[in-house]
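Think of the structure tokens as a kind of shorthand, similar to the way a musician reads notation: each symbol stands for something richer, in this case the local conformation of the backbone. In the example below we present two proteins back to back. Begin with the first one, reading the sequence and then the tokens, and try to describe in your own words what changes along the chain.
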Amino acid sequence: MTTPATGSAGTTSDLPDGALGVTEDSPLPPEPVRVSVTEAAAELVRRLTETHGPVMFHQSGGCCDGSAPMCYPDGDFLTGDADVHLGDLDVGLERGVPVWMSKAQFEYWKHTHLTIDVVKGRGAGFSLEAPEGVRFLIRSRVLTDEEFVALESKIGSA
């Protein structure tokens, strides 16, 4: 179960326990999305927003921070033509939290639905949650054929 980024699709059996939003009894939202967030991660994002103001995520492609979703004050990590906007997470704030990935990495991950979660332990990197003794991580599942076709038609606007 997850909180979708602007409309989600998929079955809850594919999603992590303790996530927000869609339940087995809920109708599926009309449009699939590429990224969602668990309740635990959404709570942490709300706390980080209280401290740092609006935040954003950029899905790291490796190196010193592995392939972790990195959380920054919105605008501190500059995005541009070399990045893909995966969606905006609804974490219960007035504005959605944008999630980005480099186009090169997106080519490898474009068949994947990503769920941002949080676990105990310190990650390696500059993400805002580091001093909290926790780290964001990605849980993933392969998109259904229907989700992939619907999302591919939108990627030009992402």
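Once you have a description of the first chain, move to the second and do the same.
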Amino acid sequence: MTTIEFASETPRITTRPAVATRVLNALANAYVAWKNRRAFYRLGDMSDAELADIGLTRADLHVAVAVPFGRDPTVKLRAIASERADTIDLARQVPGRAHCLDFRSP
């Protein structure tokens, strides 16, 4: 085998594991997204009070369900809840705005 023949075969040898790894990662990610989507649908059975306990609203579920199939809706929910928590934390830091955070009914 000459050097030229070896050099032309080397990329093909090294790309096979990379392609297999990408395929396995894609399958693993699809499985995790499917599993999380099943858990996500169970959130719809929770009451509004239970959703509020974990920092979500029913409207958040409607936003996250619009995520394309194969993608994980819990990632969207996590982002929504995190953004809401950050907003509440910022409001607490602003003087004179603490009264805006009283969520209790009068």
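Compare your description with these statements about the second chain. The mean pLDDT is 79.
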